[in-house]
Amino acid sequence: LDHLATRERRNAENLIVLGGGTPGRQWREPVPLIELIRSAISEAVHYNRVEHGRVPAVPVVGPAVADLIHLLAELLDNATAFSPPDTPILVRGNLVGRGLVVEIEDQGLGIPVEQREQLNTVLSDPPDFGVHTLSEDTRLGLFVVARLAHRHGIRITLLESAYGGVRAVVLVPAELLAV
Q1: Are the beta carbons of 167 and 105 closer than 8 angstroms?
Q2: Bridge partner list, 153
Q3: CA dist., res. 81 & res. 13, Å (int)
Q4: Which alpha helices (H) appear in the chain, and where do they start and end?
Q5: Which has the closest alpha carbon to 27: 58, 60, 52?
Q6: Cβ contacts of 3 within 8 Å, gap of 6 or more
Q7: Integer Cα distance of 93 and 55 in angstroms
Q8: Cβ atoms of residues 76 and 89 within 8 Å
């Protein structure tokens, strides 16, 4: 029941984000990245398939915590939905010169290059959400991810993974880290 309630809350927050609002969940204090990743995993539908690798001990500033959890959970849901049910999804993080990178990698079928480029365009420059947009693309989660990322200056790039699936690279700018 707890997992179901968590998923329903995230679905309700998706509608708030798509409507241009801000969900009510907020943190004031920084939260360690590992806690954000664990929270995002717990919100994913098939959370039992997600494993986390090495993650740096770095806190994320409070105002970005809820949106980053939501964003990662949406990407994890996509990874589990578009990969074989018996394959793991790996989440790992690394500090880089411009901030922090969180990678989510699946072992699915991948996305054709043209479609992946279109999705990367949506992620880098979120379109206005409307009926016309919805009729062209029914992946609401990516619209939500794009909006949340844009709100905080987070860059997301979808790449082909070494396994043939998809690797989502989330670049969290240094300004969102409490170091």
Answers
A1: yes
A2: none
A3: 20
A4: 2-18, 33-43, 62-81, 113-124, 131-136, 140-152
A5: 60
A6: 42, 47
A7: 5
A8: yes
Per-residue confidence of the chain (179 residues) as pLDDT tens digits? 555 666 666 666 665 566 566 766 777 899 999 999 999 998 888 999 999 999 999 999 999 999 999 899 999 999 998 899 999 999 999 999 999 999 999 998 899 999 999 999 989 988 776 543 554 444 567 888 988 899 899 999 999 998 889 999 999 999 999 97
Residues shown for the chain = 179
Pairing state between β 89-96 and 50-52: parallel
User: What distance in Å separates the CA atoms of residue 66 and residue 148, rounded to the nearest whole number?
Assistant: 10
* Of 166, 142, 173, 159, the residue nearest 73 (C-alpha): 142
H-assigned helices in 92-139: 113-124, 131-136
Predicted TM-score of the model (pTM): 0.84
d(CA 170, CA 168): 6
The confidence score (pLDDT) of residue 143 equals: 84
User: Tell me, what amino acid is at 169?
Assistant: V
Please count the helices (runs of H) and the strands (runs of E) in the chain. Answer: 6, 7
